[in-house]
Structures are given as C-alpha cells and as structure tokens.
Amino acid sequence: MGQDNPDSVIVWFRNDLRLADHAALAAAVKANAKIFPVYILEDTVAGGRELGGASKWWLDKSLKSLRSAISQRGGKLICRKGDAEKILRDLIKETGAEAVFWGRRYTQPEIDRDADIKKALKDDGIEAKSFNTTLLTEPWAYKTTSGGYYKVFTPYWRAVRGNYEAPDPLPAPEKFDGIGIDGDEIESWGLHPSKPDWSKGFDEMWTPGEDGARERLQDFLDGPIRDYEEMRNRPDEDGTSGLSPHLRHGEISPATIWRAVMGRINRGLKEEESAWSFLSEIVWREFSYVLIYHNPKMGRENYDSKFNVMEWRSSKKDLERWQKGETGYPIVDAGMRQLWATGWMHNRVRMIVASLLTKHLLLNWTEGEDWFWDTLVDADPASNAAGWQWTAGSGADASPYFRVFNPITQGQKFDQTGAYVRHWCPELKKLPNKHLHAPWEAGRDVLKKAGVELGSTYPKPIIAHKEGRQRALDAWETLKEKQ
Ligand code: FAD
Fold it and tell me: What is the ipTM of this complex?
C-alpha cells in the first residue's frame, strides 16, 4: 500500500509510555495498520544527557507495565538499546514496516536528532510522522499580540484557559504485532539500582505505569482537588496530585487530566476555583516547554544573561551537606531527605531548598539542577531548569534575586503541624512546634528534654540566616554594578 495508508507501522515510544490517548498510536489504528511497538534506550536523552538514577528506576517499571499491556493485546514491546536511527532501519528490514510514527520531543538535541532520523527514513522511502503526545498544546501554539512567545506565565495561562479545549480521547489499539521480532529483556538493561538498591522508599510511594497514573488521578479527583488551592503549599498534608512522574514519562496525557477536571467543573464542582488552580499548574509545565523550546540553551545556561558574571561560590562540602539534608535548617533537610528516600519533593519545599542553595550558599543553580536531575523521578528537562532558574532569579518571569526565602518562617508557615519535619528528621521529633524550625533558638533545657544535641545529633545551621541573606544581597549588588 502507498505511504498515506501504510500496511504496517512502527510506533516508537519515547516520553509517552501509554496506550490511551496517544496520537501516534491512534494514527496507526486509523490507518488500519499492523502495529509494531518499539522502545529504544538511547545513550542520551533530553538535553543531551543520560537519564538520572531515579528516572531509570521509574523507566524500568513503566516499560514493564507497557510491555504487559501490549502483551495482553497479543503483541510484544520490542526493546532495543543504542543508536535510534540504526535500530529503526534494522527494524524496518525485519518487520517490513512502511512507516514510523512517534511523539515529538522539544529540547534542541532531541529536535536535531529526530529531524535527522526523519530525513534519513524519508530518503529510504519510509513514511516518518511525528505527533504531539505529551503536551496540551505545543510550544509554538500561542503567540502574544506582538507575535512572540509568552515570557510571562499569567498572560500565557489566560490565553490557554480562554482558548484550550481538550479534543475527544483517542482510542487505544485492540491488537499489536511484534511477535517473532527480537528485542532485549528490559531486565538486562540494569535500570533498577543494585549495590546498593536504594529504592525501597520509591516502591512504597509509587506505582509507575498507565494504571498507576489513572488511579492517582482518580484519587486526586475524589478528594484533594477540592482543597487544592489552600493545601497545595502544605508539605505536611497530601494536598497535591503526585502526578508529575506519570506526566514526565507520559503514562497519562495532560489532555486526559484536563478533560477529567473539566468534567468535574461542568458537573458543578463547588470548589471550581481550586480545580482551575490545579489546571494552572498543569499549564506551568506547558509554559516550561514554551521557554525551553524558544531558549534551547536554558537547560544549562542562564536565561537572563546578566547572571553570566555572577560570582558563585564553589564548595563541595556545602553542596554535600545540602544534598544529604544536613544543613541544620529542618525544612530544607526534610525536603532533601524526602527526595533521596522517595524520588520526589513537595513543590513548596523545592523552592525553599533551591533558594538556600542559590542564595544562602551562593552556589550555582546548575549544581542543584544536576542533583535534582539524578534524584527526581519526575526529572524533566524543561520543568527542572525552569524551576531552578525561577528560584535563582535568572529565569523568565522569575522570582527576583533579592527575594531570599527565609527557611525558618517558610517552615513555620507551611509545615504548620510540624508533621513533615518530624517525619523526615526524626531526631527532632520531640522538639515542641515553637522550636522545630529553628532548634538553635531553643534553650538548653528544651533541647535536652527533646534529646537534641546541636552539632552532634543534628547539625548547627550551615550559615546563619541573616548572614546568608546579606551575602546573597551583596552578591546581587555586585552583579548589578557589573552590568
Ligand atoms: P501538582 O501540584 O499536583 O501539579 C500537577 C502537575 O502540574 C504536576 O504533576 C506537574 O506536572 C505540573 N506542575 C506543577 N507545578 C509545576 C511547576 N512549578 N512547574 C512545572 N510544572 C508544574 N516538576 C517536574 O515535573 N519535573 C522537574 O524536574 C521539576 N523540577 C523542579 C525544580 C524546582 C527547583 C522547582 C521549584 C520545581 C520543580 N518542578 C518540577 C515543579 C514542581 O515542583 C513539581 O511539578 C510538583 O512538585 C509535582 O508534584 P505534583 O505532581 O503533586 O504537583
């Protein structure tokens, strides 16, 4: 059959590890083609680097879940490792496929690689088609009145809220092929950590895969969405959806989330504004993709070039104390330990720990971004860079550099019950709320009664808040003078 209606199609899964509402798969279904599902483990991914350890843990389980969903439909997920172009060409020979369909990616190294692959396949007479499988709308969809891209979130959000309508969901294929084609065992890729296996806490918190994503959404819609606006900043409560790693790996489409939330709104959800507030966060993810698409170097370089002459400190010791959750600021240490144990950290706490690193410790945001890249199950090239640059002050629509988060009052305000710090820093468990976020201010008797010995059972602050704040402000003044 001709190119417009291929008899058989390779569907190349990438950041879209699901069957439902998947535009590339649905196009193959529509063409009535035999479908060969393929996953390729490439040496480098988004931003041209290797996946981090926590993402590999997730990928391992997510692929196994996809493999099982495909085999239930009579097919086999063909897994191979290495150079994507070569593997696709080999597979075309082995399967006789006439076309390759995939979902688009938006960081520059991936755009370049995909363009090369598309060209090579087309030169061979193979139909190569890409689709939007991961975003509500692609980064070029909305333009400002002057024709540029949105650099400020609020007007971008207004444009999406006023215009976006989720299309009808796309059907999952009922049948797959792939049987008889060789592939690697996912187990042989060593994605799951060993020596040591640090993932126990991950197992307790997460169910990677399409079913897990659907359940998370359902649980969120059945409860927390009602109080989202109020509770989304409270790490001591289960106030957010926990959907970020599922979205990162594409186990659920953002359009599915949008439709489900709009369904609740249209059925008269009383807490409508709370639901809109949640949707606006989904659009923050989209906005991060707008930024990185239009600023391809933003993953590693300052969006605001003024920061190129910032005199960051260099201190391996301070970086390690931050990474290990030993800064002496309880809310920061709780966050860093939550990250290490579960691969995730609450958004409010991400901002607090990022502020401490870039302001009090005056370390370059890229050092923090690297650590998050390795340890987050939702490590995302766009959202991670945007989140770090926003907090550091070097990003688009960023929090100004001179706004230095106070880790004590942030803890008191957002971990009101103290449950978050008590859970992740159990050595402080017996401290009364009044002193929980600033143990060094407690009297000797209080500390003794709580079994806390500063500098021994729990660290003294890595730098006094006032001193750290002043040093950051001085660095800001110097930066301004250099412009
Ligand atoms: P919810 O509050 O339930 O929000 C729903 C969804 O909206 C999330 O799953 C996520 O996909 C999206 N979202 C929410 N907040 C943001 C945001 N500020 N920016 C972009 N998308 C958002 N998010 C990532 O997905 N990957 C990252 O690598 C990442 N790195 C970050 C680094 C820093 C320094 C900061 C401050 C934020 C970062 N975020 C990142 C954004 C945010 O912290 C997480 O998306 C959020 O905590 C995920 O939890 P949730 O799914 O319960 O969020």
Answer: 0.99
